From TrEMBL:
Protein name, UniProt field: Methyltransferase
Cross-referenced SMART domains: THUMP
Keyword tags: Methyltransferase, RNA-binding, Transferase
CDD domains, A to Z: THUMP_AdoMetMT (cd11715)
Pfam families for the chain: RlmL_1st, THUMP, UPF0020
Organism, as annotated: Candidatus Proximibacter danicus
Start and end residues of each THUMP domain: 43-154
UniProt-listed PROSITE patterns: N6_MTASE, THUMP, UPF0020
Record SUPFAM superfamilies: S-adenosyl-L-methionine-dependent methyltransferases
MF (Gene Ontology): RNA binding; rRNA (guanine-N2-)-methyltransferase activity; rRNA (guanine-N7-)-methyltransferase activity
Top-level taxon of origin: Bacteria
Amino acid sequence: MQNFFASCPRGLEPLLAEDLAAVGGQHIKTVPGGATFAGEWSVCYAANLHSRVAARILWRIAAKGYKKEEDIYQLALAADWPKWFLPTQTMRVDVTAIKCPLKSLDFITLRIKDAVCDRFRRECDIRPSIDTREPDVRVHAFLTADDCTLYVDTSGEPLWQRGLRQKTVDAPLKENLAAGILRLTGWQPGTPLFDPMCGSGTFLLEAAQIAHNIAPGSRRSFAFERLQNFDAEAWRNMRESALAAEKTVAWAQLYGSDISAQAVRAATANLDRAGLLDAVELVSGDILEIEAPKDSGVLVCNPPYGVRLEEQESLAALYPPLGTALKRHFAGWNCYFFTADLRMPKLMRLTPSKKTPLYNGALECRLFEIRMVAGSNRPAKSSSD
């Protein structure tokens, strides 16, 4: 049994725990921004392959209290790095901290690098090279006020990089955040889904993968494949099983539009490259004018946030007609808006039935749920946050 830590966007920790339990994770405990869990290596492989909301899966190799930099160096020196990877492989070290009393994280990073290299010199007479861009192995250290925990990254590139999206527009959502938002809406395959501000198509790509039972990690490689203890046969069987469970791509009642023709072209190219274009209908259109594609369904979108003052003013002008358009065209739909602009529902003159706090990176946001009542221009009654 090994110990692991899975990271995720803040606000999605309960969904991450569900993902980890689904692949056999044990002793799952959520913390802000992730969850700890235990399991055999097959559980680690499966979490990387199947979790739609995880960002990284880290393998915990050592933890101890510290008072000074030398304590962290000794902790790293004691770890059996040559057992886990080769001195011919490249590496990098990343350090994050909360309330760390030591002065320089850069110096701590350097000391951990020194310790790993010193251990290799002692055991193998050679040391690994440092590659900060595309390392074979990533070592992570997490410091609290009193403790240092060392991890080896099993994911490599972050898990939200599915290997599908090539063309992007301004400020695209990360795929794991989009997948989590879809889960929070309660959308299920077979229900019409519409993104009227689809950008490069992230919500549509995630929904199409869910509808066709495509594991998010089935089209990419992972760092655990480069570790000494990698079980190639177990991984091959797991991945082949996931590929065999996929459904043939077909129309899935997924609709997308955007006022920008460039965005529609980007979304079309991304879906086409992923082999999922047949599942989706894409058109150019203005959210204020476009008709609902069906009598009912789930509308989800990530409108602009308006960081600059002039952007905030233009958004304030957009929201009232947007509220009117929703009443006119989307009665019977459950509408979800993911935004950092907390003025949005009030300026649309609609009362959200739910407000879910989420983070887009460091930016605090809300997922507003607005249920448009069929046969009435009045929004659903408010419930508490």
